[in-house]
Structure formats: structure tokens, C-alpha cells
Amino acid sequence: SPYRADNKPPAKPVVLISGGKEMAYGAKTYTINSSNFSPGAYSGTWTTDVKMNGRRTESNVHLTSGVNTIRIYAVDPTFVLQKLVVSEDSVKTSHFGPGESYYVGKNVGGKTALTELPYDRFVIPGVMDAAAFEGSKEPEQAVLHAEAGKEYAYPVIVTGENTYQFSLSAKSEQGAQVKLLWNDKVIGTLEIGKEDTIYRMESGMALTPGQGIVTLKVESGSADIEYIKAGIKDSTGSQAAFLSASSEQSGHGAVFAYDGENKTTWMPEDSDAEKWIVLDFDNVYYFDRFALVGTGVTGYQVQVQEGDKWNTVYTGTEITKGTQIFIQGKKAIKSQKLRFVFEGTDIEIAEIDVKPYVNWAMEDNVTVSGEKNSGGTISVPASVTDGDRITKGMEASVGASSDAGRHLVTMEFEQPRTIDTIRVVSLQSSEAASPGSGTVPDFGMTSDRAQRPG
Question: Which of 358, 235, 352 is nearest to 287 (CA)?
Fold first, then answer.
């Protein structure tokens, strides 16, 4: 806690934050919980402050996209700022707290990225307006008409060390091939077609904080390009899919419902007799759960394609943001395509979260055997790998505090397989009083846990 030289505490130290791109642009000034910054016993948090060797406080500041300037002023003396964290949500309580947020000029890995900020540059991760290339005049149109043989440069600032995936929002009536470069290194090449959609580079580019140039080079044809986007490459194992929909409103294409970002949305036309969106994967996969983020929905169906028919596997009402909905019951759900049919008006779907997977326990010729820790074998029925999550496959008593009754189950595959997730679904006997009742197990009633081998 701060004290003056005369050992008398200031009456009420005040800390101000000024946030905005530049002060000249009308930045607002916020006072951070000045009543909580009283020193010593006057603070009300004195004992906690001593143990933490510091004091934490929060304030909401509105920031615009791109690089912002935050100025912190200690109105009273002896205030010391130790760390500044910028987060969309309130930070969880911990002893040391999260690492300090990146800022222009921060020393990263022993190297200082930037010491001053040029405001005429785009930011990575972020979006580059294609029409605002280096040397262009104030663009009159929101779309760049990129011509064959021409190059368009975009000065950028990379704000964090990561692997980034690049994509274009574009279309080309005759077809075009464009190449993206980071300084003198090729990021990748894209074939642009007639569809006005998002075209993504398959590979990512590892970048470190600093300045550079993204260059768009048109190898052949011509294309209308709205923007270039550089985002952190997804490493969660999400499966790529081709998206189609009953309709799309301008700026709200179907691809935005499966891009990992809640800020982009798919919006169908209200005039659609049936509002639907289809995720078409490159192969046949299993599906056992999904989650939705969106508004305006009063009802929906999840369907899989079997032959020429769409069969409904789940029917829901309103959307609860991000809640995992389990759909695998007596039969494993397997398809190349998933269709979501929505009811309502002013429907806006920010994200459809599905994780297709290959179930080698069902796809391979698996031999299952069991033994007790106390010695001897046990019979393990093939039904433990049949995809039926309602009817019990194997009943096992694990005993009390002793391991004598515990079982070991071994699965042997026909050939070596790459496995990144092992999932076991089990029920307590009290929860399985009516086996085969039709209740689909979820997190609340099972010991469903995903184990990922190291």
C-alpha cells in the first residue's frame, strides 16, 4: 500500500485509465474503483493484499478492433502498476494471475517487437480490407477488383507469436489463382471460384511479433476480394466441412456458422419456407454430441442423410449457448452430412460446434477380453463396443475400498491405429434401474470422460 514520506496515507488514491485509439479521437476516461484503493486497514482488503503482495482491480473499457492505446495515470503519488491484463471476460482468481497481455514494444523472447506504433498498418491476428492495399487511395468500394499479374501489399503488425491460418473472402466469375506471401516467403496458393465464400489456406504460417508485409499476387484470372483474414490456426482437431444453406443474407454466409468465431454469423432469409444449413464432411464420420450458439430460434432439428432421405436424430427448442447436447442413444450416428433445420424469425447462428470422429472400436475387427485383479478371467460381451449407450453392455461390481473386484478390459485391434481420444461411458447401477428406457446418457448421469494419450 502506498504511503507518503511523512508516513501518512493519502486520503483516497485515485487511478485513471484512458482508453482509445488516440486521445484526439475522443478517448474516454475511466476511474478504477478508487474507493478500493485506500491504503492499510482503510482498504477493507488489507489482509488479502498483504498475502498477495499486491492488489487487483478491474474496470470495463470499450476497445475498437485493431490496435488501441490505453494510458494509465496515477493521480495521487506512490502508485505502482505491476501488470496490465486485457481480457474479454473477468479473469479467474489465482495467486499470480494470468500473464501480462501483449502490447506494442513488449519484450518477447528477449526481442523487442516494436517501440512505436505506425497507425497505417493492419494487425495479425485480424482482418485486412483488400481494397486498402499499400499505396491505394481512399477506397471507394469495399471490394478489391484484383487483376491478373498484379500484386497488392498490406503492411501489418504481428502482435503475438503463433501459427496463423490465412483466408480470403472472394469470388471469381471465370476462376482465378492467387498467391499470398509473408515478406518473401510463400504462405500458399488458392483457387478462387464463382461462389462468394471463404477460401482458406490448408497450411499455416508461423510468425513472431513484429512488422512485415502480406502480399496478394494474382497468378491468373481476376477476382473480387473483400478481405484477407489471418487467424490463429485451429489445433483442436476440428474437421473441415463444406457448408451450404437454404439462403444467405449479405455478409452472413453459411461458412460463418462453422468458423470457430462467435462474432461472425449465418443469417438465412426470413422468406425461406425451410431454413436449413448443411455441413458436408470429406468422409463418413460418427457424431455423438453438438452445441449451438445463436438467436431467434424457437425450434430446430438435427438430421443425418441416409441415402436420399434426411432422418431426424434430435429435436430441440430454444438454444442454450454452448450447451453440449448428446444425441447417441441405442444406435451410433454415422453420416457424411449433418443438416440443421431451424424455426423462428430473424435467425442468426454464430456457431455450430460438432466434432466428427472415427470410432475404431466399431470400425475395426476388435477382440475384447477381461480379467480380474484378483486373478481369473471375466466375460466381456461384444455389446460394449456396439454403439448402444442405453442398454447396458457389461455389468461390473468394483467393490468398496478393495481392488479385489476391479476389472481390466483389453481391446486388441486388427492392425495398428492412431488413437487420440479414449472415451468410456458408464452408469451407476442406481441410474440404470430401467435399462433400455431410452434415456440418452449425458454429463449429468454418466462417468463419460475423454482421456487423451500423451
Answer: 358
> Is 378's pLDDT higher than 70?
yes
Say yes or no to pLDDT of 90 above 80: no
Residue 391 neighbours by CB distance under 10 Å: 14
Question: 171-198 pLDDT, tens per residue?
Answer: 999 999 999 999 989 999 999 998 887 8
What pTM, to 2 d.p., does this model score?
Answer: 0.50
SS3 (DSSP) at 269 = coil
- Bridge partners (DSSP) listed for residue 300: 316, 342
**177: CB partners within 8 A, 6+ apart:** 189, 190, 191, 192, 218, 219, 220, 221
Return the H-helix or E-strand segment holding 82: none
In terms of Cβ atoms closer than 10 Å to its own Cβ (0-12, 13-18, 19+), residue 281 is middle
* Sign (positive or negative) of CA dihedral 382, 384, 385, 387: positive
Using the 8-state DSSP alphabet, how is residue 156 labeled?
A: E
CA-CA distance, 27 to 62, in Å (whole number)? Answer: 10
CB atoms within 10 A of CB 48: 12
Cβ-Cβ contacts under 8 Å for 148 (sequence gap 6 or more)? 176, 218, 219, 220, 221, 222
